Here is the input.
Amino acid sequence: MAASTTTVSSKAGLPPGTLVHVGERLESETRITVIDYTRDGGSEHTVSTVEEIAGFRGADSITWVNVEGLVNVAVIEAIGQEFDIHPLVLEDILHTGQRPKFEDYDDYLFLVFKVMYPAHGGEVVNYEQVSVLILSDYVFTFKEKRDAIFDSIKARLRKPNAHFRKLGTDYLAYSLLDAVVDQYLSLQDYMDAALESIEDALLDEPDSSTLMSIQRVRHELIFMRRSAAPLRELVGGILRSDSELISDHTMIYYRDVYDHVLRVTDAFDTYRDMVGSLLEIYNSTISNHMNEVMKVLTVFATIFIPLTFLTGIYGMNFEYMPELKWKWSYPLLWACFLLIPAVLMFYFRKKKWL
Amino acid sequence: MAASTTTVSSKAGLPPGTLVHVGERLESETRITVIDYTRDGGSEHTVSTVEEIAGFRGADSITWVNVEGLVNVAVIEAIGQEFDIHPLVLEDILHTGQRPKFEDYDDYLFLVFKVMYPAHGGEVVNYEQVSVLILSDYVFTFKEKRDAIFDSIKARLRKPNAHFRKLGTDYLAYSLLDAVVDQYLSLQDYMDAALESIEDALLDEPDSSTLMSIQRVRHELIFMRRSAAPLRELVGGILRSDSELISDHTMIYYRDVYDHVLRVTDAFDTYRDMVGSLLEIYNSTISNHMNEVMKVLTVFATIFIPLTFLTGIYGMNFEYMPELKWKWSYPLLWACFLLIPAVLMFYFRKKKWL
Amino acid sequence: MAASTTTVSSKAGLPPGTLVHVGERLESETRITVIDYTRDGGSEHTVSTVEEIAGFRGADSITWVNVEGLVNVAVIEAIGQEFDIHPLVLEDILHTGQRPKFEDYDDYLFLVFKVMYPAHGGEVVNYEQVSVLILSDYVFTFKEKRDAIFDSIKARLRKPNAHFRKLGTDYLAYSLLDAVVDQYLSLQDYMDAALESIEDALLDEPDSSTLMSIQRVRHELIFMRRSAAPLRELVGGILRSDSELISDHTMIYYRDVYDHVLRVTDAFDTYRDMVGSLLEIYNSTISNHMNEVMKVLTVFATIFIPLTFLTGIYGMNFEYMPELKWKWSYPLLWACFLLIPAVLMFYFRKKKWL
Amino acid sequence: MAASTTTVSSKAGLPPGTLVHVGERLESETRITVIDYTRDGGSEHTVSTVEEIAGFRGADSITWVNVEGLVNVAVIEAIGQEFDIHPLVLEDILHTGQRPKFEDYDDYLFLVFKVMYPAHGGEVVNYEQVSVLILSDYVFTFKEKRDAIFDSIKARLRKPNAHFRKLGTDYLAYSLLDAVVDQYLSLQDYMDAALESIEDALLDEPDSSTLMSIQRVRHELIFMRRSAAPLRELVGGILRSDSELISDHTMIYYRDVYDHVLRVTDAFDTYRDMVGSLLEIYNSTISNHMNEVMKVLTVFATIFIPLTFLTGIYGMNFEYMPELKWKWSYPLLWACFLLIPAVLMFYFRKKKWL
Amino acid sequence: MAASTTTVSSKAGLPPGTLVHVGERLESETRITVIDYTRDGGSEHTVSTVEEIAGFRGADSITWVNVEGLVNVAVIEAIGQEFDIHPLVLEDILHTGQRPKFEDYDDYLFLVFKVMYPAHGGEVVNYEQVSVLILSDYVFTFKEKRDAIFDSIKARLRKPNAHFRKLGTDYLAYSLLDAVVDQYLSLQDYMDAALESIEDALLDEPDSSTLMSIQRVRHELIFMRRSAAPLRELVGGILRSDSELISDHTMIYYRDVYDHVLRVTDAFDTYRDMVGSLLEIYNSTISNHMNEVMKVLTVFATIFIPLTFLTGIYGMNFEYMPELKWKWSYPLLWACFLLIPAVLMFYFRKKKWL
Here is the structure.
């Protein structure tokens, strides 16, 4: 998480457009997978040079180039040169601290956003930057890591006669975006589980570890919201754009993604309110607890302090203390020892302290 | 309530437009009721096939198809095919985690929103997703449950010569929306009762259960506001749309619904402020209480501690303690025992601690 | 106050446009007063039928119809029919939970808003809904109660050669609105007095009743702001409207009212900030107080606890305690009894506890 | 300060345009100063009638009429009549509770705003309402008090060949506004000093008077912001206006004033954040303090309570207590008296309580 | 930091356009460096008169004039005269309390903004005002101090055949702005380190110095945000402007800077949320701590108080106390002394106090 805020300064002072990978090095090498498909069929290849990629430039086939691992700067620079991509775009692809955005460069569209999904048995949230270039017959995706987020799309592309394969690069790009937003929605299960376990702890016996849990969830929400909020602008930008690369027919699908993004940001707002509310319950519970402790102390002290005073009186060694010699003194004092607490208990009960 | 945040992820990875019911299964079967009416009369039927529904396609009759229970995906898919509904719309109908929205598909209008109403003697709030399709001579409503929310409209339709029956599908859709917003307004009684009982508890003797009540109401308000807020956009979208399916004459009625929606969201804002204010009263009351407990403890301790010290002195066993032999020592000490508390009480009263 | 949030649901389920009085029944009957005036003179009548009202339809006279008490639904329905008012407008007039709004129906303008003014010696705030219909030669006002809010306008109308009487219905409506906004401004005296008395209580000796006062004022501010805020939209709507019923000449006066409304909402915002600040003073004062109590307890306890321990030692009955027999033990111990408190007091003073 | 919120209601009920001075009476009489200047020279007069003012209506001279003290309503009414000013404008001039605003009446422009400046050795903030009327060859300023805020402008006008004198009434009005905004900026010194003294008190020994200081500054900030915020709209309104009374050349100067106003409102926002932060430091410091007091009490009590219990045991008078006769009992007990505190101190130190 | 809020008033009362340096005097003299370059080569000079600067007015060379130290007002005035700069611009350059802004004066563009960077081993933040004038063949930069912020650009300009040198003044200005925004991004490391050290202190043992650290960071964030927020408007203004001084080709680069600025302001928002969250952890930790202290006190007091009371009873000197003579009294009492604490400990453990 910290990666998104700490690694920015290392490039300060370099001229713009200088291609250097800025960010944590998450993979040791760059893997390039190409899926080329037409209405009738498709093929899947692992390639290593830009020439191979350019070789798929076909009449009416659509080519999806998936670049995983951003360590091989040379190959990304070569893709940029071959497909005439602006240096600033290549810089943004390699620089993993991007703010999600959509840019229209006439010949191609550029999207960059964050993927978030729970990992390691749902206890840690993974962050990854994904960049998408939409050309008329190519879609490039640049990912920091090899993971499974686009596997469902690959599976659908492999099916013969998929509805999918009759449509253009805009629909493929939509599917990628949709898969990412679905990952966001899946974070809700993660958050629900986290909040529920905090709620249980609050009902049981809250301690400082409960506070830490609340703050950890809150901290993560800050980062999630920061990643998710610009997505609304991003998809909104696509909806408003009049690029020829996105057909009217596909626009309806982007509108659907927009609704999903609104749902995600709504949910994050709700979670924030709920975490704030949990924090208040925590503080009030601690305060209640202290109140209860104070009451017990007060009841004990106020009952025994006067009694101890009485014992102190008759423990004095004055020569002239007539009560000491009187036979009924001791039993009478015991009566006091029973009466005084009774009276005080009655008073405290009336005050609702017990 | 949790349903609206937890069931989203189960569809992640499926291609868009895949028809699967996502959400809690609230009914065991799907019941379809058709009300067909013209200016002169009407009829009511329970049907089970799409052919039967299509059979009501008449010259100038208006047909309201009410689908309750979303378990029978096949019949909803068939309706979509028969009436040429976009697959994404059908998907939204079946997916019960929708954000309320309005969409204009030229041939038909699509509304989806939440119904909320108190149930079980006013102690629980029920949530239900309702989708409405407005065609030129058909209105479809898709509901998760069989309940009474549209019964008043059915009753009005049954009346001969109802003003209602002279108007088009736009007016029927308005009536449905109006009935739903009236349900929202009825939540105010529920909220008023809840807040009043909390206020009573605060005046009486607030404890941790009061805190829980406040937080429960607050929690529910978060969900209610989340359901109600997008309704403003929804009705606003209808008012701004220039669809031919809504006549100018009916637009005035939608403007009226818009006012009601504003009233609902205003009321929810007011409730939120009031709940926040109740929470502050709670915290201040607890704090006051503790203050009072502390005062009692302090008064008791500060009065008896010096007295007990005095008894301690004359309980010592030194051989040379002249006071012990003096006759008036004991009565004089008793005078101290009375004087010291009197002085301290006077001091505390001046300090306004008693 | 509660009336504005609780009486809404009683109409749920009725068809729109059904005329039923919804709200508290504040008058037992409906009184209709008509003031008819031209440039040269005027007359004042109390009428009971719609025919009488319609009878004032004169060449160039302006007729103000003031309806007080909304119990007689029939007469309001008759007015609606005679002057061709939309059923939804009549419904809004009779339904006292309206959100303030302005609507332009071409032939007439419709305003509905709340009047608020302090009553009963300035200790209670009265709320009343007022609806205004502006026609080309008639102005209708519908009020829930008989009260004095429009008396100053009546007085001005009675004066011969009043500047007032040379102008149209738009100026009359402006005067009514201006009178209402002046009532809002008069609430400032009420609020100033309330805040000042709380400030005094805070400086003196705040207790839980002070807290209750703060919360009551805050509660009322929530309702006042809720009534006042939509007034800005209302007057803004009039300023933006291009209705022929409002002349350019009068528009300047509406602009003036708009400034007053801004001043009212500014003032309410200021009051809210001030109440928030009073609440914080209250909490800090309570906290300070507790701190002081704790210090006294601590000083007493820490001084006497070690002394009492010393007396305990020499109250023990061991056979071999040489100090007990030594002559100077007792005086030396007394020296300790004086020295220990002195040292502790010095320490506490250095720590600024005293 | 209170003046701006309390004196409003006294005019309620009067017809609009009635000229009455509403506000505190700050001067006993009205002084009118006229400065008339052309490119070549100028003259300064104190006048008392409107005829004298009108007498300066010259070919190309510019006349600045400065009216100080609003008690003489007649002369202001006469100015209104002579120069054809709208009655509502005159009413606003005399009514000192105005919200700052800019209005364009074609023949003249009307500005009304608040002047704020620290007075009496920088300990009190003075508020004053200033109204400005800009005509083609006259500028009127109406002030509540005689003070020095425009003295620098008078001084500049007196200089021969001043750049100033070659420009029109728009530049004079700009200079007046600029002088006022500079007064606002000078409040920053006042605020900086106030905040610094609070910071010092917080580092030293905060008590309830520190709280009062914080709240007083906060209170004043509320009023300052309320006066300053509408100034942004005011100058923004001038910038957007296309009045012929303001030349393009002077517009650049108004743009500069606009920047200054933004700086003022930015500064006030910063001060608000800083005051909020000081309040939190105050509360945390009090809380820290109490924590420290509690620790001392706890350490004292927990050390001596068990020791006193031990002395109690051997102060009992049972006949069969073998320890009492044993020779080493007393020294051994003393060993306990030293060991127990040492163990407890070690424990507390480990817990970081000391 | 304080400089930005305190030095404003010293110029109050002077006529606009008067050239006086307002702000801290950070350098003792003004150094002017000129870098003149064409596509083919460049040269670097230190000059002292305006004539020398004007001498670089060449056919197609671009001249960057870097003025460091604002003490020599005369030379800045001379530059203004030579290059026909508006007096208000010169005033803004010399006045170091400017709000960042962009202004288009047709013949030249004017930018003024703040540079912020951590200094002295990353513990202090430096603030500096930089003004930029963009002419068709000149770029002027005015800086308060001599520092290294533009060194990377100088280095790039010195390289033969730099892509840089083929572009106009708009690209040079962009590079300067980009360098400044990169400095902002480098503040993130500074903030990350500060927050991390606070987090460590919170986990370890928070005390009042931790509170001071939190408040210091918060305080600095207020100033940083105040400097950074207007930068968004500034770059936004450049993007919207249609000045001929900025080519379409360079606009893409400004769009990139705009993204960086958004990232900076996003990051500052995140930091603010995180600091707020740290403050809450601090307060809750202190509160937890006090709770723990209270528990220990309560446990000690409630265990020993009844025991001490028992010892008090049998320390009394009544003649008729049969237990005193009974042989098993003392051992039995010891049984009580062990049993009572055991029972109480069991009770407290059940209440989860231990």
Q: What stands out?
A: The radius of gyration of chain E is 34 Å. Residues 72 and 98 of chain E are 19 Å apart (CA to CA).
